[in-house]
Structure formats: C-alpha cells, structure tokens
C-alpha cells in the first residue's frame, strides 16, 4: 500500500512540474521605452529636475516579463503612445525639497500600470535617478504687459493690479501678461482677460490661478503730415571712397506727404539725422543702370512697434547713379551723406 501511495504522489509531483514548466515556458520578455515626467499635480508647487537638469527622462529602458496575452494587451494599449510614469514629491516624502535618489526599479514595479497587466519588471535602466526638488513660494506680484516681441506695452488699467504666483524663494520681480496684436487692438476698446505668469527658468512658466483684465490707452488717430526729408545712403564698406552717389529723382524727395503718424511720432521722426535711407549694394557699380530701389523709412523703432507711424504702400523709390571717383576727384558737397553698413 505504501509503494502505491508513493507512486501516486510521484505522478502528481511530476504532473505539477510539467504544468509549472509549461506555464513558465509560456512567459515571454518584452523590451520597452518609457518616459518619466513630473506629475501634473506637482508642477504648480515645485521646481523639479532630474539628472543633468532635465525636466523629464525620455528613455527609460524597461524589460517586462509575463504571459504572452498580457504582453500583447500592453503592446496594443501603448502602440501609438509611450508609457509614462509620474514623479510626485509627496509620494516619496520629498515635499520639503532637496536632492534625492529615486529607486526607479522599485518605483516602476509598484506602479499600478505594471500591476494592471500582471507583468514582472525584469530590468530598468537607469536603475536609479537623482532628482532635485525646490518648493515654490506664493508671492503677490505687480503685473507688466509685453507684446509678442517682448517689448513692454504701456497699459491703462490692470485689474487686479497684483496676483499671487508660486515663484522661487529669491524672486522679487514682476509678473507678465503677453498680448498678441489682435488682443492689443481689442484692449484699446474693451478689457482683455489673460493669466499672468513668471518664467521660473528658461522654458518653464508659473501661472497665476486668476485672470486679470487689461485695458490699453486708445490709439491716437494717424494723420498725414508733409515732411522735407534728409536722405542718407547705406553703402558697403568695400565701396566707400570709390563712388559718388547721385540721386537722379531728387525732386521726388523735396516733400513727402504720404506718411501717416501721430504728432508725437512725427516729432521724433523729424529729429532723426536721416528720414530716408537708400541702399547702395555691392555690384551696383558694374551695372549700366541701377534699377529703381525702394527706400527705407528711418522711423524710430518704438513708434513702429506701437503702431504710431506707418510708411506708404508701395514705398517711395529712388533712382541713383554711381560716379567713379579718381584720386584727383573731390566729391561735391550735397545734402546727402554716405553711411557705412553695420
């Protein structure tokens, strides 16, 4: 009887071994590339960077092991997107800030995504990752407006005039509202609402939770004024001293009346040394006849940006002639001046 029982137990044991071997033989491995990011919930309260100052790690090299059906299920789920894992300082007890080492292998093994597919993480490269956490502090900040080029735009009202924004401990600057050109046009008639922000580091902004309403001063009407311009020339340094520039259609430049601008813009424009600039290009001296050349209106840049002065369309054109100078030739004095290019 005892031998019979032993034989039965032996058969059962062998059967279990065969089943276990069959089950294990069905498991397969799958390499995977994943991303480590900062959890969205932590972005507003912390400045976080991983090794080498990165705000995310794009290439976590993972190897999963599991049943083929589970591997296939995961492949289908992430066929068109990368698997992402999110770091939140609060989950690691890092909320006070500092520099820490994350055990990525353990972190990913315990992640609900991996558990959902009943997979085993065989390897993770890198295995560990350094992370630096800086707690941001909410501060009340005054607000300035800028345009899309970064130039400061004078506002009429901003309500409220201050907002609280999470910033670095040593930050004492202002918050910023950037307005597009269409927004600026609307803000001259009705308030425009936007969220102020502070650029914490290059490429990362911290935003206020509330909107502010901005109005800009109404634009002055642009009117035409006659102007008697001084004409200057932008000439290549390689051509300096070789030619005398003659403005053939000088009579067209006695009085210009097609420019539109505000009174203040015209005042500044008239104070420019040259109101009109004509470009003399390399190779012009070899041409039998230089084609008509559109002039450059030497408007003060700040009035161009604010839309307070506009050139006519199409611009005035200049017809010029280059007269070669010899060592014995003395250029005649004219009301125009040759300018070197910068």
Task: Describe the protein in words.
This protein is of the alpha+beta class and 342 residues long. It has helices at residues 2-26, 40-43, 68-77, 89-92, 104-109, 112-116, 181-187, 263-270, 301-305, and strands at residues 28-38, 46-50, 56-66, 83-87, 98-103, 120-125, 128-135, 137-146, 152-153, 157-159, 162-167, 175-178, 192-194, 197-201, 204-207, 212-215, 223-224, 231-235, 243-247, 260-261, 276-280, 293-294, 296-297, 309-310, 317-318, 320-324, 337-340. It has a four-stranded mixed β-sheet. Strands 8, 9, 11 and 12 form a four-stranded mixed β-sheet that branches. A hairpin with a 5-residue loop joins strand 8 and strand 9 (152-153). The longest helix has 25 residues, at 2-26. Mean pLDDT is 85; it is low at 330-342.
Keywords:
342 residues, alpha+beta, four-stranded mixed sheet, 9 helices, 22% helix, elongated, disordered C terminus
Helix content: 10-25%
Number of contiguous helices: 9
Q: Strand tally, please?
A: 27
Weakly predicted, low-confidence segments: 330-342
Q: Mean pLDDT, as a whole number?
A: 85
Whole-number radius of gyration? 36 Å
Would you spell out the secondary-structure blueprint of this structure?
Elements: H1 2-26, E1 28-38, H2 40-43, E2 46-50, E3 56-66, H3 68-77, E4 83-87, H4 89-92, E5 98-103, H5 104-109, H6 112-116, E6 120-125, E7 128-135, E8 137-146, E9 152-153, E10 157-159, E11 162-167, E12 175-178, H7 181-187, E13 192-194, E14 197-201, E15 204-207, E16 212-215, E17 223-224, E18 231-235, E19 243-247, E20 260-261, H8 263-270, E21 276-280, E22 293-294, E23 296-297, H9 301-305, E24 309-310, E25 317-318, E26 320-324, E27 337-340
Parallel strand pairs: 1-4, 8-12, 18-21, 18-27
Antiparallel strand pairs: 1-3, 2-7, 3-6, 5-7, 8-9, 8-11, 10-16, 13-16, 14-15, 17-20, 19-26, 20-24, 21-23, 22-25
């Amino acid at each position: 009887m005892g031998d019979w029982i032993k034989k039965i137990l032996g058969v059962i044991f062998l059967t279990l071994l065969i089943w276990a071997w069959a089950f294990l033989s069905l498991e397969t491995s799958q390499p995977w590339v994943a991303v480590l990011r900062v959890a969205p919930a932590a972005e507003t309260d912390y400045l976080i960077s991983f090794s080498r100052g990165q705000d995310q790690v794009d290439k976590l090299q993972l190897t999963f092991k599991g049943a083929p059906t589970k591997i296939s299920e995961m492949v289908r789920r992430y066929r068109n997107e990368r698997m992402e894992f999110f770091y939140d300082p609060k989950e690691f007890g890092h909320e006070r800030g500092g520099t820490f080492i994350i055990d990525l292998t353990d972190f990913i093994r315990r992640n609900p995504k991996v558990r959902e597919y009943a997979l085993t993480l065989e390897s993770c490269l890198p295995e560990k990752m350094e992370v630096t956490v800086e707690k941001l502090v909410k501060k009340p900040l005054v607000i300035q407006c800028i345009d899309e080029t970064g130039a400061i735009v004078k506002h009429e009202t901003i309500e409220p005039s201050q907002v609280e924004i999470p910033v670095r401990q040593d930050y004492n600057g202002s918050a910023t509202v950037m307005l597009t050109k269409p927004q600026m046009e609307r803000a001259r008639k009705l308030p425009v609402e936007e969220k102020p922000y502070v650029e914490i580091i290059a490429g990362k902004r911290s935003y206020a939770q509330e909107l502010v309403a901005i109005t800009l001063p109404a634009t002055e009407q642009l009117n035409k004024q006659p102007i008697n311009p001084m004409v200057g020339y932008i000439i290549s340094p390689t051509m300096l001293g070789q030619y005398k520039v003659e403005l053939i259609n000088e009579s067209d430049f006695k009085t210009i009346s097609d420019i539109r601008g505000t009174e203040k813009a015209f005042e500044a424009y008239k104070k420019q040394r040259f109101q009109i600039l004509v470009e003399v290009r390399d190779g012009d001296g070899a041409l039998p006849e230089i084609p008509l050349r559109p002039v450059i209106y030497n408007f003060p840049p700040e009035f161009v940006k604010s839309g307070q002065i506009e050139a006519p369309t199409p611009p005035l054109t200049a017809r010029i002639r280059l007269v070669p100078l010899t060592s014995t030739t003395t250029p005649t004095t004219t009301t125009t001046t040759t300018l070197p290019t910068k």
